[in-house]
Write a structure and sequence with these properties.
mainly beta, 4-stranded mixed sheet, 3-stranded antiparallel sheet, 1 helix
Amino acid sequence: MRIKPLLAALILAPLWAFPTLAADSTVTAMPAAGALTGPELFYCIQGGVDSKCTAAQMQTFGGGPPGGASLTLQYNNAGAFGGMSGTSWNDTNRSLTITGVTLAGGSFPVLALTQTWNNAATAFEGFTIDITTTAQSALSTLFSVKRNGTPKLWLNPADQVAVAGDLVLTSTTGRIYLRNGGTFLSSPANASLQIGNVDAAAPVAQTLSVQSVVAGTANTAGANWTFDGSHGTGTGAGGSIIFRTAPAGGAGSAQNAYATAVTIDSPGTLRVKGFTVATLPAAGTAGRIAYVSDQLTACPALGGTFTGGGAVVCKAFDDGTNWTHQ
């Protein structure tokens, strides 16, 4: 349907009674019409035929009036404007509110977005929000997920991510990246925490430390570092603290097995690794301690070397040349 430009503004009451205009008059010189109530008629052309149109028909030609309550978003409701329930637009603060309903069955997300990326040269962004901070409360959040009104996951202006509950990595290869990927925390097996990335052909040495006194602070003692073994109850002994290493094995590419090197037992005693005389590591690294389990006779005099083949246990010390009794 199309409307003749000039005649579309002329209300026909009756249809044939056009108002009389002075010479050279324009539409803008005509008096403004009042509110349309419905019975007014307009001149229009439909399918090449001169026709009359009502105000209601003209409204459908333009899409009709907005649906729903004031401030609600509009959607196509079977060809007519519909107000989107649960929405409200605050034009002053440019703020959109969307509320869902109580679901008794079925899953209907309040917002479900999908997108496909298909260009290796493009740095895509699936969701972005850019907040400019000039002044704000310390309790402000850039992003916040709540349950029953209580924050559960949020990001604050100090670039801190907080989780009120457990942080669960479901993948068996999941890692936590620190220092832009320079430090990793991973878990190679259940109940096992590894500092560093997954095992590699050229592993990177790792350092575990505790907080120290900052440089520039004079004559201040450092803090203790406490390792706790597992608690026992009653007459049950507490757990030991065990340090293990992986001694060299035969030629091959399989990982060498771990073996206990040092144990701090529940009573607080220190137990080092034992060897037979024949299996003692090659001497030459001064300061190492161990024990031999098969000294032939009584332990040799201090500084003496060992002879295997017996069952006497003796403390052994690497003096840089030999393993000797100490």
